[in-house]
Design a protein that fits this description.
By secondary structure, the protein is α/β, with parallel strands linked by helices. It contains 14 helices and 18 strands. It folds into 3 domains: about 260 residues, FAD/NAD(P)-binding domain; about 100 residues, Succinate dehydrogenase/fumarate reductase flavoprotein, catalytic domain (Flavocytochrome C3, Chain A, domain 1, Alpha-Beta Complex); about 100 residues, Fumarate reductase/succinate dehydrogenase flavoprotein-like, C-terminal domain (Methane Monooxygenase Hydroxylase, Chain G, domain 1, Up-down Bundle), CATH 1.20.58.100. It binds succinic acid.
Length: about 525
């Protein structure tokens, strides 16, 4: 960890910890939303500390984003309609207005002008090659091949790294928020087993998603819902937690170490790829008028149904020039020995949480001086089902807004939570076994299809599991234990929200028969 940024106004008799730091704005997480918050705050004159568990850019979900970043082009009204329709009219129109109104300006100012991201063009320097994805009325997705995330994320990290007013602490996990008299004053940060309070004028959570709560996910490891759990434990409101989005086309991988799963971007269907079952039949027209370009929740369920009925679903890429249009995905297939000309085997996997810490249009949570942005937040933009390629955009827009709003406060040094025994004296395999149990029950009972009996059973299992984890957390501090705690808290929030919502809508799909009686 680099040198502390202790300010002169800080309390000089602080004794509970060996050391502490102060900063105007503490950002927890280093995906596009966290980096945008850091930029927004620093541009307003704040000193910013970014604390991230990640040890490399690939540790953030944003790095993995394939399809791209949707913009409003010349028709924000149509963009808004598409977002609302994909969400089955459950998205918050006011939040959607913010997204579509800010989209073009944020992308141009930050991504193009400040970071110099070279989005694919049609030849002319400023003639973007807009891509099409499911449920978009027109091509409006800026992309770089099908690896847009890393082409945005790496220059963003480099840009902030070069600034004197932003400090990035990697391999540094936030374990708990520091709250005092109803206000959030920063977080306890852990690195190499050492725990240090970071006191901040404002704290921005940007911890990403929840992929580690499910057996199959497109998220990188470590997506344990940290920010959601920390905020909820501190008393912040969460909303829409039942809306967990599954991506329909993920290559599931095999048993060999080199044969790992990977996302096959919706952009491939946008260019004309077709879904076929094991009998070679194209089935999507039977499920929705927009066939392969139906909203993501519809396609994901259809793919799962056809897999169960016929044994396999493949993405037939013969209608397009796959190798020329998607060289990066072609390379992924080649590395795993997948013969894409015969169709790429695909199935659904957890991809994105539409809900999270409830925030307003500036990313403010229900707790004073606490903000949340990106996937850990619930802005209302996605409702029950997110439109493709709006997640990077939401992270960018809300990150900038929250950062600007958060910049205005000085850090105060207050009493931090007590430091517990640092000895991570856990029974061998404790965390691993609990994660296996947690993922199994989430996948079976709070997944793509849900039955109230299954969801209730999941709540009981998760409550027991959380109780076992909490017993250890009371006496020990270790990162893996806290990740398990965050995962169990977040899983329970999802299961509780799923149990309380009797309306089958979007990603919250209620079925008549218990899912646990079916084969996966
Ligand atoms: C994809 O490329 O299919 C993912 C895009 C998204 O999740 O928005």
């Amino acid at each position: 960890m680099s040198a502390n940024n202790t300010d002169a106004a800080a309390r000089d008799d602080y004794e509970d910890y060996d050391d502490y730091r102060t900063t105007d704005v503490l950002v927890v997480g280093s995906g596009i939303a966290g980096l945008a918050a850091a930029l927004g705050a620093a541009d307003e004159g704040a000193d910013v500390t970014v604390a991230t568990k990640a040890t490399c850019p690939e540790g953030a979900s944003s790095w993995w984003a394939q399809g791209g970043i949707a913009v409003s082009r010349n028709d924000p009204g149509q963009f808004k309609e598409d977002i609302l329709a994909a969400s089955a009219d459950t998205a918050d129109p006011e939040a959607v207005d913010v997204l579509v109104d800010d989209a073009n300006g944020a992308v141009e100012d930050v991504l193009v002008d400040t970071l110099g991201v070279a989005f694919d063009t049609n030849g002319e320097a400023d003639e973007w090659d807009f891509g099409r994805e499911a449920a978009h009325d027109e091509p409006r997705i800026l992309h770089v091949d099908a690896s847009t995330g890393k082409h945005v994320h790496v220059p963003f990290l480099n840009h902030l790294d070069d600034r004197d007013d932003v400090e990035i602490l990697d391999d540094t996990a936030a374990l708990e928020l520091v709250s005092h008299e109803g206000r959030v004053h920063g977080a306890l940060l852990e690195r190499d087993g050492e725990v240090t309070p970071a006191f901040a004028g404002a704290t921005v959570l940007a911890t990403g998603g929840i992929g580690d709560l499910y057996p199959r996910s497109t998220n990188p490891d470590g997506a344990t819902g940290d920010g959601i759990a920390m905020a909820a434990l501190a008393g912040a409101d969460v909303a829409d937690m039942e809306y967990v989005q599954f991506h329909p086309t993920v290559y599931p991988g095999g048993d060999d170490p080199g044969d790992g799963p990977f996302l096959v971007s919706e952009a491939v269907r946008g260019e004309g790829a077709l879904l076929r079952n094991a009998e070679g039949e194209r089935f999507m027209p039977d499920y929705h008028a927009d066939a392969e370009l139906a909203p993501r929740d519809v396609v994901a369920r259809a793919v799962q149904t056809e897999r169960e009925a016929t044994g396999e679903v493949v993405l037939d890429v013969s209608p397009l020039d796959f190798a020329a249009e998607f060289p990066d995905l072609t390379a992924k297939c080649a590395a795993r020995g997948v013969d894409w000309e015969a169709g790429i085997p695909v199935g659904p996997a957890e991809h994105f949480l539409c809900g999270g810490v409830d925030v307003d249009t500036d990313g403010r949570t229900s707790l004073d001086r606490l903000y949340a942005v990106g996937e850990c937040s619930r802005t209302g933009v996605h409702g029950a089902n997110r439109l493709a390629s709006t997640s990077l955009l939401e992270g960018l827009v809300w990150g900038l807004r929250a950062g600007e709003d958060a910049a205005d406060h000085d850090a105060e040094v207050v009493e931090a939570p007590a430091l517990l025994d640092r000895d991570p004296d856990l029974p061998e395999n404790f965390a691993r076994e609990k994660f296996v149990r947690l993922r199994r029950v989430m996948g079976e009972s709070v997944g793509l299809r849900r039955h109230p009996d299954d969801v209730r059973r999941a709540q009981a299992v998760l409550r027991r599991l959380k109780g076992e984890v909490d017993a250890y957390v009371r006496t020990r501090t270790s990162r893996s234990l806290y990740e398990l705690r965050f995962a169990s808290v977040t899983a329970l929030l999802i299961a509780r929200a799923a149990a309380e919502n009797g309306e089958s809508v979007g990603t919250h799909n209620l079925v008549e028969d218990p899912v646990t009686s079916r084969a996966d």
